Amino acid sequence: MSSKKNKKLTPVQQEYQKFAQKREPKRPAFTNCLKAFLVGGTICTIGQGLQWMFIKYFGFTETTAGNPTVATLIIISVLLTGFGVYDHMAQWAGAGTAVPVTGFANTVSSAAIEHRSEGYVLGVGANMYKVAGPVITYGVFSAFIIALIKIIIMELGGI
Length: 159
Description:
It is extended, with a radius of gyration of 23 Å. By secondary structure, it is mainly α. 81% of the residues lie in helices and 0% in strands. The protein has a domain at 28-114.
C-alpha cells in the first residue's frame, strides 16, 4: 500500500493493513500465467484447426475461412457456457479464457442466461446489450474513424 494512502489512515487502520498483508495468501503468478497460456493457446489452436478444416474439406480460402471459424468458436463457447463448463475452465485458467471471441461470447451468453427470468426483451436483450453494447459501439466507431483516415490518406497521398 502506498505511503500516501497510509497517511489518510488512523494508526489502528495502518496496523490492521500490515496485519492483513502478512496473512494474505501469496498468488502463484507463474502457475497462473502458465494455466492462462495453456488454455488460451489451446483455444487458439482449436480455432486454427477449425480454419484448416474449413479450407481443406469445405473449399474455403484462407480469407473466407475466418468467418465460419469465428462462428463455430462462438457457438462452442455459448454451448460450453450454457452447460456450465466454460465457467469451470475460466475459474481454473483465469485470463486464458478471455481470448477475444470466446471470452466475449461467454460474457454475453452468461448475461442472457442470468437474466432470462426477467423476460426476453427487458431481461435477456437489455442485459446482453449492457455487455455487448459498448464493445459493438466502440468497434463500429473505431472502424468509421479508420475508414476516414484511409480515405484521407488515399486522397492526399494517392496510395
